[in-house]
C-alpha cells in the first residue's frame, strides 16, 4: 500500500534480480496497472539504469505507433528510501518471460507454430533496434516477456503442458544495449547466447544479436539450451559439432594474431597483474592451432565428461527436424559475422512465409 512518487500505489512484488526489484503497482493518475523497476543503490546498476532510460526514451520516440515490440517505458523518476537513492522505471504491465514459461512446463519446448510467431516477433524487435543503430547485446529468453501469460492446459505427446493463450511478446532489458558508434565492451551477451566473434575477441556489431536469436529459437523448440556450457573451449567445440562445420581458419588465425598483439601491448604497458587478454576473454592461441587455425579439441577438454558432452550432442538437422527452421538457424548461426543473415533478411526467410497465426491468439 506504499505510495511512490505521490502517484504509484504498490500492490505486490513481481520479481527480484541482481539489479533490484520489480513491483506491480497501480497508477492513480492514469487509472491503470504498471510495473516499476526499482534499481538498487549501487553505482554500476544506477549508471546502467540511466543508459537504459535514455535508450528507452529514444525507442519510444521512434516507435510512435507502438509496433516495435520493444517494451514501452511510461516514466522514470528518482525516489529515496532509507537514505538511499533509487532510480525507478515505470513500464507497461507484462507477463512472465519465455524462460519462466518453459521452466513451468518442465522445459517442454513450444509447438513449431508458436516458435514461428515468437521468432518473427523477436526478429521484428531486433530489426527495429538495428534500424536505430542500436545493438541489444543481451538477447535471451529471460529478456522476452509475454504480454499476457494466461494459459490453458493441453495434452501434447502424452504430457499435459501449459499453452499460452496469447503469444504476443515484448523485448526487455536495454541496460546493456549499445549504439554501434559508441564504445563497445569486449565481453557482451550471456554465455550460452554469445557469438563466436565475441568469444574470440574479434570485435562485434549487429550480427552478434542475430547469433543470439538463433540460439533462442532453437531453445524455444527443444526446451533446452542449444549450447549448454560454461567453458570457452567446450563452447566452441559444441558450436562446431552442432552446426557441423569447422571455424574458418582466416577467423581463428586472426584471433590468434590479435591475441598476441594485445599481449604485447599489455606487456609494454607493464600490466604485470593482468597478463594476456583483458575483460575475461580466452586466449585464442591456447584454443586453436597457430599453424592451421584448427580448434584444438579434444586436446583442450577439461574432463572426460566435457569430451563426451560434445561427442554426444546432436547436429542441428537432427535436433530441429523442420527443414525450413533448420535452414534459418544455419543462416543465423553462421560463424563469420560478415556472412550471417541480418534481421531484415531473416524476416523474409521462407520459414515465415506462411504466417498461419492470428495476431493476439495463440497458434494451435
Automatic annotation (TrEMBL):
A single Gene Ontology molecular function, please? ATP binding
Q: Which InterPro entries match?
A: CLK_kinases (IPR051175), Kinase-like_dom_sf (IPR011009), Prot_kinase_dom (IPR000719), Ser/Thr_kinase_AS (IPR008271)
User: Compositional bias (Basic residues) at which positions?
Assistant: 267-277
Kinase found in the keyword field: yes
State the UniProt keywords alphabetically.
Answer: ATP-binding, Kinase, Nucleotide-binding, Serine/threonine-protein kinase, Transferase
Can you supply one Gene Ontology CC term for this chain's record?
A: nucleus
A Pfam family name for this chain? Pkinase
User: Where does the source fall among the domains of life?
Assistant: Eukaryota
Q: Does the keyword Glycosyltransferase apply?
A: no
> Protein kinase domain: from which residue to which, for each copy?
8-352
Region: Disordered; residue ranges are 258-285
* Similarity comment: family membership: Belongs to the protein kinase superfamily. CMGC Ser/Thr protein kinase family. Lammer subfamily.
Q: What is this protein called?
A: Serine/threonine-protein kinase
What species was this sequence derived from? Answer: Hirondellea gigas
